[in-house]
Specification:
This protein has 377 residues and is mainly alpha-helical. The chain contains 15 helices and 5 strands. The chain folds into 2 domains: 3-286, Fido-like domain (Fic-like fold), CATH 1.10.3290; 288-376, Orthogonal Bundle (Arc Repressor Mutant, subunit A). The chain has helices at 34-56, 60-78, 85-88, 100-119, 127-137, 176-188, 196-210, 217-231, 243-248, 250-263, 266-302, 309-321, 327-334, 338-350, 369-376, and strands spanning 9-14, 17-22, 324-325, 355-356, 366-367. A 3-stranded antiparallel β-sheet has the order 3-5-4. Strands 1-2 form a two-stranded antiparallel ribbon.
Length: 377
């Protein structure tokens, strides 16, 4: 099927409403649009550079954890969860009671990312994996009553307060299994000679259009992207997440998906998606470079600390994983005495590595501000 002649689907009359039945995607795709070829080449090159950085950065998994945390916070923010990046990094007991549900939703997403990536070692990116990931995402939060880990058995909608005023109504629940089976086959159909970035662009659109779960479709659909790239060997580490790009261009993101359904304009969506991969890959590469610069600078300072240097270095490793901390948290992480830990904290404050944020004499919270700013920018 050519992008230029693609028909996105049809509206089917249901009881008092019409649902959208998308065209199946498991078939050959071609296009004549030259900008897509240029963007595809640029996006692949940038993605390769990002992957190369993730392979030679020392202790890269420390920094990947922050990428995952940022992705979870941003992807959840798109769905209306009001938890700031700094709040996500705090332990639950530091979160006000009225914000803990949102905090838990973000941390469920972090768990879902970790578990789904781990499952890729012995399970392909499949409906089974997506259901398992969805179950983790919905665990113990507001969506737990909406069939966690199961494709929906009732009609859902996007926008509006009901089916009568919805901005978009996905396919009828009776068709979800067949559509998701087709999508799963498309992801793994090696007979189709489709570039991976084009394939996952189409797959993301199709997933969001099917909207197979009662809740959490946006987050699962966005998580599909790095899972696919890892499963196909384009990424060695989970270092590319598009939620930040989608959040900063939220109106354009929704408009691009809508234009496919309403105007059959798949080319516009693919171009938007490839631009997202290109921009996000470059930003990710620059983030790794900034981390390396910061790390080199701080470790040069540590060399002059004499006998205290090993303990301060160990504290720094802990801070790369958890850049918001307290003296008791560091004490447990380093298995050191309270006086020794407090001395380390004072040293890190004097070095400008840690900044105290509460202004209190007790229960102080410290932030590795320069490091956090690399991800928050």
């Amino acid at each position: 099927m050519k992008f230029e002649t693609y028909q996105a689907g049809k509206w089917l009359a249901q009881y008092q409403y019409k649902s959208f039945e998308p065209t199946l995607v498991n078939h050959a795709w071609t296009w004549e649009d030259t900008p897509i070829n240029f963007l595809l080449e640029s996006a692949n090159r940038a993605l390769g550079e990002l992957n190369a950085f993730s392979l030679f950065v020392p202790d890269v998994d420390l920094f990947i954890q922050m990428h995952i945390t940022k992705e979870a916070q941003t992807s959840s923010k798109i769905e209306g969860t009001q938890t700031g990046f700094n709040e996500v990094l705090l332990a639950k007991e530091y979160i006000p009671l009225d914000k803990r549900d949102d905090w838990q939703e973000v941390h469920n997403y972090i768990d879902a990312i970790h578990e789904s990536i781990a499952h890729l070692k012995n399970l392909p990116l499949s409906n089974r994996l997506l259901k398992s990931t969805h179950q983790v995402l919905m665990r113990g939060v507001r969506g737990e009553s909406k069939q966690p880990g199961e494709f929906r058995k009732s009609q859902n909608w996007i926008g509006g307060s009901s089916l009568s005023d919805a901005s978009f109504i996905p396919p009828h629940q009776n068709n979800v299994d067949n559509l998701m089976s087709d999508l799963e086959q498309f992801l793994h159909n090696d007979a189709l000679q489709i570039p991976h970035l084009i394939r996952i662009a189409i797959a993301h659109y199709q997933f969001e259009t099917i909207h197979p779960f009662l809740d959490g479709n946006g987050r699962i659909g966005r998580l599909m992207i790095p899972l696919y790239l890892i499963s196909k060997g384009l990424l060695s580490k989970p270092s590319l997440y598009l939620s930040d790009f989608f959040e900063r261009n939220r109106a354009s993101y929704y408009d691009a998906l809508t234009r496919v359904r309403m105007s059959n304009d798949l080319m516009h969506w693919v171009r938007f998606f490839l631009n997202g991969v290109l921009e996000t890959s470059i930003k990710g590469r620059d983030t790794f470079f900034s981390i390396l610069q910061l790390r080199t600078e701080i470790e040069a300072q540590i060399l002059h600390l004499g006998k205290q240097a090993p303990n301060v270095h160990a504290a720094l490793q802990s801070l790369y994983r958890q850049p918001l901390t307290t003296a008791p948290i560091l004490e447990r992480a380093l298995s050191l005495s309270k006086p020794t830990t407090q001395k380390i904290v004072r040293t890190l404050v004097d070095m400008g590595v840690l900044v105290e944020t509460t202004g209190q004499l007790r229960d102080r919270i410290y932030v590795f501000e320069r490091y956090l700013n690399v991800f928050a920018s």
